Amino acid sequence: MARAEDDRIELKAAVGLGSLVLATFVAITTEIVPVGLLPQLSRAFSVSEAATGLLVTVYAGLVAVLAIPLTRLTGRVARKPLLLATIVLYSVGNAMIAIAPSFAVVCVGRAVGGVAHALFFSVLSAYAAALVPPKVQGRALAIAASGASLGYVLGVPLITSIGAALDWRAAFGALALGGVLSVLVTGASLPRVAIAGAPDEEVRGPRSALIGAATVNAVAFFGHYALYTYVSSVLLRSGVAEGAIGAALFLFGATGVIGLWLAGLVIDRWPRAGFLGALVLATVSIGGLLVLQSSTGGAVTAVSLWLVGFGAIPVFCTAACLRARSLSPDLSSAVNNSASNVGIGLGAAAGGAVLASSGIPAVVVLAAAALAVAVLLVLLLRRGFPSRAEAVV
């Protein structure tokens, strides 16, 4: 019989997860902040919005390429110092952008952040799972991922609002300082965990399950970021004032928290059904923008529902990759990290190209179609998305 303690998260682990929430908050805010500041950056350097959207693509491309090799290279490095080093790199990259004299330097700063991101999320997921008993690992992943939702709710709107009130340089400077604070808090409160083991030592499950989970991850993120990268443009075209973009992003982030909370309720019991529900909600809501995008209230409602769905999707993807048990936890996280950023980079690039050639309605169709494909893949790939959850490690 399982002990009651197996279903609980101890205080020390809870404090550690709290520090991971803060670190994830800084990481995801860094990743997404160009979405809110895209119009300002475009004007400041006299480049098109589609070209400015490449800041997301460059960042994601580096993560996609580097996540697996960097995780292998650092496989025997202590996890806690490695995690702290990645947060320092986030601050360095944001500080570079804050003082950048040209768009090229902005791109270099984003590249530094991309290198940090390649390792951060590869280490984070396995770290969160290692802090708690197997029966609540899905919940621990959801808690750690709540930092990402808070990044949407508070981080991106806050930094966007700083950019609107002052300028984009002050916004990135504030984000750099936030990274320094995160290093101090995480360093003081995060328990150390044992190294997960060399990647090839922990192969236990079929590679097909991991490949399937990673493929769905990439497709879902492609669809989301094909449109979300340009959500400021969607809102401006629907009648939202530029000064209100930050408030709108705050609302969208809050809906993402709802989605993550719902995911936390089902991820350790009904992961397949929960994932399908989230994907369908996101797909239908994006499709609704074709009808509602000319209405301010309609567009805001559709985007809000879309982000309830997407708020749940990343943690389901992460859990599916880890639960495939095909590789060590760290390397499985790296595969997940790489796959999501392949989707982010290609989605942002494809969305920008379609936006430049055909406008927002065509981008909406692209995004909805990609998420519909993700739904079909989950229905077909039962091995990668079982009805019941297994332990992560």
Question: Overview of this structure, please?
Answer:
- This protein has about 400 residues and is mostly helical.
- The chain has a single domain (about 10-380), classed as MFS general substrate transporter like domains (Growth Hormone, Chain: A, Up-down Bundle).
- It contains 14 helices and no strands.
- It has helices at about 10-45, 50, 55-75, 80-100, 105-130, 135-165, 170-190, 205-230, 230-235, 245-265, 270-290, 295-325, 330-360, 360-380.
- The longest helix is centred in the first third of the chain and has 34 residues, at about 10-45.
- It is globular.
For the structure shown, list the relevant keywords.
393 residues; mainly alpha; Growth Hormone, Chain: A
CATH architecture group name = Up-down Bundle
Tally of structural domains:
1
CATH topology descriptor: Growth Hormone, Chain: A
Q: Give a short account of the largest sheet.
A: none
* pLDDT < 50 stretches: 197-202
Average the pLDDT over all residues and give the rounded result. 84
CATH class value: Mainly Alpha
Overall number of strands:
0
How many helices? The count is 14
Q: Helix/strand-derived class?
A: mainly alpha
Shape: globular
- The H-and-E topology, N to C, reads as HHHHHHHHHHHHHH
* CATH homologous superfamily title: MFS general substrate transporter like domains
Residue fraction in strands: under 5%
Helix content: over 70%
Terminal Cα separation, in Å? 20 Å
Structural Rg: 19 Å
